[in-house]
Amino acid sequence: MNTNILNILFKNVKDISYWENKYPKRNLKENQIVTRFAPSPTGFIHIGSLYTAYVSSLIAKQSKGIFYLRIEDTDQKRLVDNSINLIINDLKKFDITFDEGQTIGGKYGPYIQSERKEIYKSYVKHLYEKNLAYICFCNEDKVNEIRKKQIANKERIGYYKNVDPCLQLSESEILKKLNNKKDYCIRLKSPGNYLNKFKYNDAIKGEVNITENDLNIVLLKNDNLPTYHLAHVIDDHLMHSTHILRGDEWLSSLPIHLQLFKLFNFEIPIYGHLSPLTKKENETVRKLSKRKDPECKVSYYKKLGIPNDVIKIYLTTLSNTNFEEWYKENKNYNDFKLSFNNMPIGGTLFDIEKLKSISLDYFATLKAETIYDMLYEYTKEYDQINFERVKDNKDYLISILNIERNIERPRKDISSLSDILKNFWFMFDDLFNQKNNYEKSFICDKNIVLNYINNIYDENDSEEIWFEKLKEYAFINNFAKNKKVLANDSTKIGTVADFCEVLRVIITTSLNSPNIYYLMKLLKKDNILNRVEKFYKKNSNK
Ligand code: GLU
């Protein structure tokens, strides 16, 4: 081995034994899982990475193990300022917290790859000395030229075996290029044979077929930073991860990683490759895309007013196929024990409609007061126009939210906080007075309605008495009990249901609403009379 070259490449680089001693094995029991979330600091957390972080943190925490944050910033072009804090804060809102990390501390740091250059160099030196790595001066043009030749000759693409001309460089040629400050990277000299196949048991996917890696992949780039392949293997070894849970886009690189672990003689962790979140679009299914899909941003749900708890329940639903059944019997989703066996193998469809239906169920279980508090915070942040309304109408809103709530089968009409004022706008006179179109409904003589409100309706009646009185009044005024009676009796002008319908439309403008008994009680008599006038002005007394 040419010492001049070694000196230029690895001057003052520590031996790997230094790092091996510095980061001893963790003192944990066998079933305690150590895993990590390893994002690139490229800005906001998207729903796919939230899913990975959520599953990984649960797996670690349920085993009373360690969950740490490692920042993978080796692609310096993609960095976004303040990303680490943004990531930590975003995840905290979902109760995802870390035991170790760059800003948290821990014995296995630095937990950010750009500060671990010295470590990676030691390990590259180790491979170099064992003739398992070499120096490559090919620039992008050269790599492309070789690739084009391979395509033209119908050869397998890539730098394998002796494809790279730099493998033929003599020591003096290398030295000359180094002295001339020519850009270089360091590549693996892969001893693998791509004809060798073997099986690997992935914790999530089960048995997968692996083809041995024979590519001389880049270990250290020309900016002196490692590639993902090298950094992942060194970091997860030195930080003693027992499990690597990551997106299945990395499955194709697994042969490289397994090979590196073996070449370094490291213990191989357990890999589990998570299926990506997908979306159905025009009958085809594709991966959720950060660029194309607004629902990819976690902030999208916040703006809509979908609580973080709902997102967590949905992520649990997606992560384990047996969760939904379990959740029907158990109230607290936090008690669910996640298992690798029940993780989906294929793509995981992220369906907003399903999320909303979980949200409907969730809101139905909450107390009106709790929803009010959430609505207060929500409008304060996202809906300034309605914030004052919410602030000034606490009791009234709680009464509205209480309509058909504290009963065995509560009403399910809120899937997000932004639904509330959309659903109940008509309970506010200023909003009601602005609206002039009514849904098409049955219409009876105005005096029948006026007489009912003035002389029969009593807001102190119980629901039962209210309905008895309403029916009796309707019968006297020629409304039939039901459609059958109406069809056989020409003196009848409609059914009792029709009478209720006209009241409902007068009060709400709509054919669908919560129980009008409660709406009328909250609106009060004078207000209802105003609404009768407004209705008949618009829908002349037909
Ligand atoms: N930085 C990699 C990514 O964002 C992490 C993959 C891994 O967890 O190892 O995809």
Shape: elongated
- CATH-defined fold name of the largest domain: Rossmann fold
Q: Roughly how many Å apart are the termini? A: 103 Å
Structure classification: mainly alpha
Helix content: 40-55%
Residue share in β-strands: 5-15%
How many domains? The number is 5
User: At the fourth CATH level, what is the homologous superfamily of the largest domain?
Assistant: HUPs
Q: Give Rg in angstroms.
A: 34 Å
- Low-confidence residue ranges: none
Give the integer mean of the pLDDT values. 95
What's the tally of helices? 24
Overall description:
The longest helix has 16 residues. Strands 3-4-7 form a three-stranded antiparallel sheet. The protein has a three-stranded mixed sheet with strand order 11-10-12, with no helix packed on it. A two-stranded parallel sheet has the order 1-2. Helix 14 crosses helix 16, helix 19 packs antiparallel against helix 24 and helix 22 packs across helix 24. It is built from 24 helices and 14 strands. With 542 residues, it is mainly alpha-helical. The chain has five domains: 167 residues, Rossmann fold; 85 residues, HUPs (Rossmann fold), CATH 3.40.50.620; 82 residues, Glutamyl-trna Synthetase, Domain 2 (Glutamyl-tRNA Synthetase, domain 2, Orthogonal Bundle); 56 residues, no CATH class; 93 residues, Arc Repressor Mutant, subunit A (Orthogonal Bundle), CATH 1.10.10. It is 46% helix and 10% strand. Strand 10 and strand 11 form a beta hairpin. The site of glutamic acid (GLU) has 9 residues, from strand 8.
